[in-house]
């Protein structure tokens, strides 16, 4: 029997969000619960917050969890915008222990990969053919690349060097806020980043997501690049939806 509901947790550099998800519609059920990411964002401190969110929701089934990290077989191998103690952490085991569930009931994914999986499944139909790149603009820049709807996991294209800088250090949404950039000023940086990226992987479609996608009308029309750009249909909830689906179906990379 296919699960019709799931629970997803999306861990970011500034906030940890969780919600119950309708897996047939790709929509949140009820309210999304958000708690600021603890500082320092060590594995134990983050696990405490995740456990609180799950407990508050009263959920006792499989849980999908995203990390801003390369995740292979449940182990974190990088730490972008979270504490470096995550590197080498068996996140599967950590969350299973903290949630009091079997390790098979936890699915760990890179945050952008989870968001991309949700968009491929529930978003623009054009994303399911050819090469599609989803980019999440938040504290950093996450990326997920798909070919004919199949994920190439753990791409780290937000860390491309562009004009001598790590791309996310210049074009993440957090940089816009921290430097007080207007949308047109920031859009120039996003344009430069996307133009470099499109010349490397020649995608058929870019999907842009993250919290800043809620204000897409202020910057997406300013992107004058070769590749079509669409806004993530699930906006900033895509990671939660993708994580919940992965947990329900036992998907992990």
From TrEMBL:
The protein's matches in InterPro entries, at most eight in alphabetical order, are given as: ATPase_NBD, ROK
| A Pfam entry, by short name | ROK
Q: Which CDD domains match?
A: ASKHA_NBD_ROK_PPGK
The UniProt entry's sequence similarity note says:
Belongs to the ROK (NagC/XylR) family.
Protein name according to UniProt:
ROK family protein
Write the lineage as a comma-separated list: Bacteria, Bacillati, Actinomycetota, Actinomycetes, Pseudonocardiales
């Amino acid at each position: 029997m296919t699960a019709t509901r799931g629970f997803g947790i999306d861990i970011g550099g500034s906030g940890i969000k969780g919600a119950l998800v309708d897996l047939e519609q790709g929509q949140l059920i009820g309210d999304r619960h958000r708690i600021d990411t603890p500082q320092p964002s060590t594995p134990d401190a983050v696990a405490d917050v995740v456990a609180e969110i799950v407990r508050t929701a009263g959920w006792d089934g499989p849980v999908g969890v995203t990390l801003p990290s390369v995740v292979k077989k449940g182990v974190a191998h990088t730490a972008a915008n979270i504490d470096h103690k995550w590197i080498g952490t068996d996140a599967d085991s950590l969350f299973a222990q903290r949630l009091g569930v079997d390790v098979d009931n936890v699915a760990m994914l890179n945050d952008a990969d989870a968001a991309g999986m949700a968009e491929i499944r529930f978003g623009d139909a054009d994303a399911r053919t050819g090469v599609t790149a989803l980019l999440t603009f938040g504290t950093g820049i996450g990326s997920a690349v798909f070919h004919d709807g199949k994920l190439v996991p753990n791409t780290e294209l937000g860390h491309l060097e562009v004009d001598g800088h790590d791309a996310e250090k210049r074009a993440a949404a957090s940089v816009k806020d921290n430097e007080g950039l207007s949308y047109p000023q920031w859009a120039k940086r996003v344009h430069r980043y996307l133009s470099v990226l499109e010349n490397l992987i020649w995608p058929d479609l870019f999907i842009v997501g993250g919290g800043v996608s809620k204000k897409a009308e202020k910057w997406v029309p300013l992107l004058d690049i070769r590749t079509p750009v669409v806004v993530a249909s699930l906006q900033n909830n895509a990671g939660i939806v993708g994580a919940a689906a992965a947990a329900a179906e036992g998907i992990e990379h």
